[in-house]
Amino acid sequence: MFAVEANNLKKTFKTKQGEVEAVKDVSFQVKQGEIFGILGPNGAGKSTTILMLTTLLRITSGFGQIQGLDVEKQDKDVRKKIGVALQETGIDNLLTGRELFYTTARLWGLSKQDANERATELLELVGISEAADRRVKTYSGGMKRRLDLGLSLVHKPEVLFLDEPTTGLDPGSRRVLWSEIKRLRDDGVTILLTTQYLEEADELADRISIIDEGLVVAEGSPDELKSMVGGDVITFTFNNEESVAKAQSLIEDSEIENNDLRITVENGAEKIPSLFSTLQKNDIEVTSVSANKPTLDDVFLQFTGYRLEGTEEKIKESEEKV
Amino acid sequence: MESNSNTSFFLQLGILTKRLLLRVWRRPLAELPNIFISAFFLFVYDGALGEVFGGGVAGTPFDFAKGNFVNFILPVSIVSASVSGGASGVYLVEDIESGVFKRYQGMPISKWAIILAPILVGAMRVLIQAGLILSIGIIIGADPAAGIFGYFAVLGIAFLWGMGFAGYSVAAGVRSGSSQGAQAATFLFFPALFLAPTFTPRYALKGWLQTASAYNPTTYVIEAMRAIMIDGWVVDLVIKGVLISGGFALLTLSLAVLSAKKATEKA
Q: Tens digits of per-residue pLDDT, A23-79?
C-alpha cells in the first residue's frame, strides 16, 4: 500500500473571468517512509494538489488516497493520519508557543497532562524550548516555521504534508528545518513536500515529481532525473554575444545562455579537447570552460523549456511592472 | 500518550472559547473604547439633561422620567454597550485571515464549535459590558420600579440584543471575508440608536422621527427596558422588547450560521 496516491487529479476553479484549470492531470505514488518532493514554479499547481490531498479542497475529477483511505469519502479518517503545514501558516500570534502546542494537543483529544507533556516534547524537538513562554509574535520567521512544523506533529501523523516549508527563510534557518525533516523521515514518517527550490528538492527528496502548468512532466529520484538529461554539461564562456552565436553555429545541439554555450554530452572530459580545437580553428576566443554533472535545473530546463532558478525573481519583476 | 480524536463537541467548544478569551485578555485596549463610550454617554446625558428631566419638569407632560433621569437614560447606554457583541465577527474573521481557521478545518473538530466559540465570547463580552454599565447606573442612582429582578430582565434583553449584533457581525464578516466587514456592525448601530426615542419618549419626538422610530426595532428594546426601570412590569412593552430582541438575535444568528457553514464548505 502506498502512503499517498494521486490519480489523475484535476482541479478547476470558477472565476468571474471563466474557469481556471489549476491542476490539469497530476498522478504520483509516495512510498511508505520516503520524502517525496513536488517541484515546480509559482502557480504550477503544487499547493492546490496538496490542498486536495489533505481534504481541504474538493477534487474536480480523479481521486486521492492516504494510507488506502479515500480523501473525499473518508476525509475524517484521513485527517487523523496526516499532519499539514501550509504555506500560509495558521498561527495565533497572541498565544505563546507552549499554549499553542497545548491547545492543539487538547483539540486532538489528549488529556491535560498528556497535552502538557507533548507540548514540552515538541518544543524541544523543533528547538524553541527557550522561547516556549514568549508570545509567537516575537518569534523570527524561522522559529514560526519550526513551530508550524511542530504543530503538525502533535497527533503523531503517519504522513506529513509540507507546503513550501522553507520559502522566505534565510539559508541558516533553511538548513535547520531540512535536518528536522530528515530526522522525521528517519523516524518513519512519510513526507510529501512542495518546493520551488532545486537545492531543497535535491537535498531532501528521495523522489521528485516535476510539475508545470498543472501537469506532471517528469518523475524519479534526483539521480534518475539527472541521468535522463545526459552525462555531463559542458559550459563554454565567451567575451561577447557575437562569439557565442558563432560558436553555436559550429557546435551541434548547443544552447546559448547569456554569454555561455552549453552542450550536454556523455563524457565531458573526452569531448572538451575536440570542441575546444574547433573553436580555436575558427578564431573564437574562449574565456573559460567547465564540465559538470547536470543539475535539477538542467532537468527542469529539458522537460519544461525554461529554468526554474530565477523564475521567482521574474515573477516579482513582472508583478512590479503591473 | 494516546490522541483521541473523538473529543466531545463541548470539550472542543470549551478549548476554542478559552483560546479566544486568552486573546481578548491579551488585548485589553481593544475592549476599552466601547465601554468608555457607553459610560461617557451615561454621565454626559445625565449631567446635561438630568437636572431638567429628573425633577425640573415635574407636573408637566415632559415628566417622563418620573423624577429619576438615570432610570430613563440608562437603557440607552446599556443598548450601546451591548453592541460589543459585534466583536464575534471580528474574532472569526481574524482567524480566517491568519489561517488558523484553515488549520482547524484540517483537524477533526466540529465546524459548529469553530463558529460558536467566537459567538460565545461575544455573548460574554455583552454580558460583562452591559453589566458594568448597569453597575455604574446603580451607583449614580438607578432604581428600577420592577425591583431587583428588573436588573436581570434589563440585562437579559441587552444580552439578546447583543447576540443580534454578534450574529450580524459574523454574517457580515464571513461574507465580506474581512475584519472591516465584521466591524460594519458599528455603522448599523448609530442610526439604530439615534432614530429612536433616545432622549425623550416617542410622543415627544417630531413627526418624521416618530415615524422612523416606529420602524426601528431598537425603539422597542429601549422602551421595554425603560418600562422596567420607570413603571415596573408593563407586560405588553416588556414582551414586545423580548420578542423583538430575541427575533433579531434569531434572525442574525441564523444568517451567521448559514454564512459560516458556507465558509467551512470545501471550494
A: 999 999 999 999 999 998 888 899 999 999 999 899 999 999 999 999 999 998 999
Which residues of chain A lie closer than 8 angstroms to B267, CB-CB?
13, 57-58
| pTM for the model | 0.79
Give the ipTM of the model, two decimals please. Answer: 0.79
Q: Which domain holds residue A36?
A: 4-94+135-226
Comparing CA positions, the residue from A5, A35, A8 lying closest to residue A221 is A35
Identify which of B126, B104, B252, B254 has the alpha carbon closest to the alpha carbon of residue B182.
B252
In this predicted model, what pLDDT tens digit does every residue of A80-100 receive, in sequence order?
999 999 876 688 999 999 999
Q: List helix spans (H) across chain A.
A: 46-53, 75-81, 97-107, 112-125, 141-151, 171-186, 198-204, 222-229, 241-250, 268-281, 296-304, 311-321
> CB–CB of A95 and B12 under 8 A?
no
Interchain contact, A108 vs B7, CB within 8 Å: yes
Asked whether the beta carbons of residue B22 and residue A99 sit closer than 8 angstroms, the reply is yes
User: Which of A203, A226, A249 is where one domain is finished?
Assistant: A226
Distance, in angstroms, between A56 CA and closest chain B CA?
6
The answer to whether position A109 is within a domain reads no
Interface test with B, best of A54, A107, A110 (most B CBs within 10 A): A107
How far apart are alpha carbons A164 and A149 in whole angstroms?
11
Render pLDDT for B33-67 as a digit per residue (tens, 0 to 9).
Answer: 878 888 888 888 888 877 777 777 777 777 777 87
User: Cα(A268)–Cα(A262) distance, rounded to whole angstroms?
Assistant: 11
Which of chain B's residues have a Cβ under 8 Å away from the Cβ of A117?
A: 1
Assigned domain for A145 exists: yes
Residue A120 belongs to a domain: no
Of B1, B27, B103, the CB nearest to A90: B103
A55 touches chain B (CB under 8 A): yes
Each residue of A197-231: pLDDT tens digit? 888 888 999 999 999 999 999 999 988 888 887 77
Domains: count for chain A? 2
